[in-house]
């Protein structure tokens, strides 16, 4: 009489609710509020829920860089980043670059033939933008001259560019052209 009987559907819904949260991501300048399973990677949310397919699923282990996007201005492997942990974050994908046209780095990749199959290109471009910003902010890399003061803009020569982009793999071997494209943009 006063007792409530739970059905299996009620129990399943309650269990599902414990494993989902509402998250707002600011993707390419647009706030997107989604209810997400806590286990979903940012890459899958971008590709499957938001139809932003620029970032690619290469290795799904954070080793190839094909999924690189910018989160709050820093480059991340989106296949490893849980989307639920990014509530309120700014996410920029290759689709969000440029102001109504091509970003200068996208144009440089085109001009320098810095891609062949193109699979890694969106991740390469996002990683290059992040690397340029890191160097401008004075974050040293493994090959930065130890005498260079930290916190001051770092010069980006070919060796620095190669080191900073070493986490992004290109099966086709377009590396020299990728470095050329980045050099064109930072000049």
UniProtKB/TrEMBL annotation:
Protein's UniProt keywords contain Transit peptide: no
Coiled coil: none
Pfam family, any one: Fer2_2
Domain 2Fe-2S ferredoxin-type, first and last residues per copy: 21-97
Compositional bias (Basic and acidic residues): 7-20
Bilayer-spanning residue ranges: none
Superkingdom to which the source organism belongs: Bacteria
PROSITE patterns found in the cross-reference section: 2FE2S_FER_1, 2FE2S_FER_2
Secretion signal span: none
Keywords: 2Fe-2S, Iron, Iron-sulfur, Metal-binding, Oxidoreductase
Pathway annotation: Alkaloid degradation; nicotine degradation
Region described as Disordered: 1-29
A molecular function GO annotation: oxidoreductase activity, acting on the aldehyde or oxo group of donors
Record's protein name: Oxidoreductase
Lineage: Bacteria, Bacillati, Actinomycetota, Actinomycetes, Kitasatosporales
């Amino acid at each position: 009489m006063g007792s409530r009987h739970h059905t299996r559907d009620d129990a399943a819904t309650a269990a599902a609710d414990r494993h989902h949260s509402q998250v707002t991501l600011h993707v390419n300048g647009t706030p997107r509020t989604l209810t997400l399973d806590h286990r979903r990677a940012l890459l899958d949310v971008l590709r499957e829920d938001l139809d932003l397919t620029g970032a690619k699923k290469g290795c799904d282990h954070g080793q190839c860089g094909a999924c690189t996007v910018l989160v709050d201005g820093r480059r991340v492997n989106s296949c490893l980043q849980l989307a639920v942990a990014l509530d309120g974050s700014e996410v920029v994908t290759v689709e969000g670059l440029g102001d109504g046209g091509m970003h200068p780095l996208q144009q440089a990749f085109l001009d320098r033939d810095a891609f062949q199959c193109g699979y890694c290109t969106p991740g390469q471009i996002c990683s290059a933008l992040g690397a340029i910003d890191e160097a401008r902010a004075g974050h040293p890399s493994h090959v930065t001259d130890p005498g260079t003061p930290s916190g001051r803009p770092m010069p980006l020569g070919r060796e620095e560019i190669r080191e900073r982009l070493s986490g992004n793999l290109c099966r086709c071997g377009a590396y020299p052209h990728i470095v050329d494209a980045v050099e064109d943009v930072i000049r």
